[in-house]
Amino acid sequence: MEETYNVKAIILNRKSFSEGDSRVIVYSRENGKLELTARGAKKIKSKSAGHLEPLNLSDIMVVRGRRYDYVGAAVSENCFSNIKNDLAKLAVAAQAVKIVDQAIRPGVVDEKIFELLEEYLEVLDTAKKDFFARGGSALGEKIFASFFVLKLLAELGHQPELSRCLSCVAKIQPGKNRFDLARGGLICGRCAKSGDSNQLAISDDGIKLLRLALKSDFKRLAKVKISKKLGQEAGGIVDKFLRYNFN
């Protein structure tokens, strides 16, 4: 008799594996990141294919195999259809699952990461179509994605130091502070080194926004009004911090 186990998982990616099968990469609450074979998923009559689409939240029965574990059955719990019907939302949702896929190794279990991704998708899905339309150019969705990245980095052990200077340990005061990518946090104006490409200028409001992003849930963050300039500043720093750690 085949051994099975059940997981609640968010589908991160699905790719071709053989003539009729697919490989499905998921992040599950119970077992972390898994790579599963979905037998017959490419066939028109497949019962499981629709439940294994990227971005779906699905309950999956997994069957242990000699070489690969495979999907025995799958039922969607949430397809996040509002995300999939909105190009701006879809873009930043796809960015989030891609980062989770790239940054986390198979078998690493962290329930907080699962909950972080689930909450992010739920808030993004239920938000009104123009909810994030502030600052123009889909800025709202982009900065919301940056909040997810920052929270994910913190959960993975890369939480930036935003309260004290990483050089002199003094409490950060308003002024000419910089964000050091290599050391992972703030350097006060007195300790900052001119010409250091890893030290990025950051405004006082930028620091406040990053602090808020780390301590607040996505429902609260979705309501924060952010100027275009501030959103671009904070988002740019988070993006460079991500690329520095996972290039």
UniProtKB/TrEMBL annotation:
Pfam families in the cross-refs: RecO_C, RecO_N
Superkingdom of this protein's organism: Bacteria
Ranges for domain DNA replication/recombination mediator RecO N-terminal: 1-71
Single GO biological process annotation from the record: DNA recombination
Gene Ontology, cellular component aspect: bacterial nucleoid
Alphabetically ordered keywords of this record: DNA damage, DNA recombination, DNA repair
Role noted for this protein: Involved in DNA repair and RecF pathway recombination.
Family annotation (NCBIfam families): reco
Record-stated family: Belongs to the RecO family.
Name of this chain's protein: DNA repair protein RecO
Species the sequence originates in: Candidatus Falkowbacteria bacterium RIFCSPHIGHO2_02_FULL_42_9
